[in-house]
Amino acid sequence: MNPLDQELKNALRRQEPSADFTQRVMAGLQPEPAPDSRWGEAIRNLLRFPSLRWATAAALCALLTIGGLAYRRHQQTVTQGEMARAKVMLALHITSSKLNVALRGVQRADRRDQVQDTQRSE
Q1: Segment (H or E) for 8
Q2: Would you give the DSSP letter of residue 109?
Q3: How far apart are the first and last CA of the chain?
Q4: Which of 2, 60, 66, 108 has its Cα between 20 and 30 A from that of 51?
């Protein structure tokens, strides 16, 4: 036999349990105190009645429907706001271009007036 086989044989040989083995096993079998589940127990007790189950299901359906409709309305409001913003930005861009054209015309007229004033003064 090689040393590994010998070590395995020694590790797996039959042994008598210790004197307190039974007590340790029995202590491990004692049930742990149940966690305090008042809410879960209360809900389970309420849902034992079929009418309350249906009422709960109907309330959940109503809440989901109302939530979905509210979300859809919010999305529409956001979309309308984005469209209004885009229109305002376009209007500002057009106004800016027109004002730039008018400003160039005024600047040309001022330059002409300055040239005419300098020619008269000479």
Answers
A1: helix 3-11
A2: H
A3: 128
A4: 66
3-class secondary structure, 93: helix
pLDDT digits (tens, 9 = 90+) for 39-58: 777 777 777 888 888 898 99
Tokens at residue 65, please? 């429907």
Report in angstroms the alpha-carbon separations of 92 from 85, 89, 97, 98, 106: 11, 5, 9, 10, 21
| Interatomic CA distance for residues 84 and 20, integer angstroms | 82
DSSP codes of every residue in 40-90: HHHHHHHTTSHHHHHHHHHHHHHHHHHHHHHHHHHHHHHHHHHHHHHHHHH
- pTM for this entry: 0.44
Say how far apart CA 112 and CA 101 lie, in whole Å. 17
